[in-house]
Amino acid sequence: xxxxxxxxxxxxxxxxxxxxxxxxxxxxxxxxxxxxxxxxxxxxxxxxxxxxxxxxxxxxxxxxxxxxxxxxxxxxxxxxxxxxxxxxxxxxxxxxxxxxxxxxxx
Length: 106
Fold this sequence. Notes:
106 residues, alpha+beta, Wheat Germ Agglutinin (Isolectin 2), domain 1, three-stranded antiparallel β-sheet, 4 helices
């Protein structure tokens, strides 16, 4: 019997279907959050005034983990990981080792 595992990326704020994963840092702690387009724009708008007044540190700007822009999605990576028998959380940050394995395999 064949089985198909489907992983749905869920917005961490309202439980709707998420379309992108965003990362941000505060007080030396890095965060990743899965959001739909509306909530992602609200987060960006809320932080814009602080980002404009602040000083950038570190290297170049990191790309947004967005399935539409990057060609891959957290949803696809999670589904692939489960099909490979790898343990992956249903929400939140995906381990770098799993993302690297996905990129190597695809």
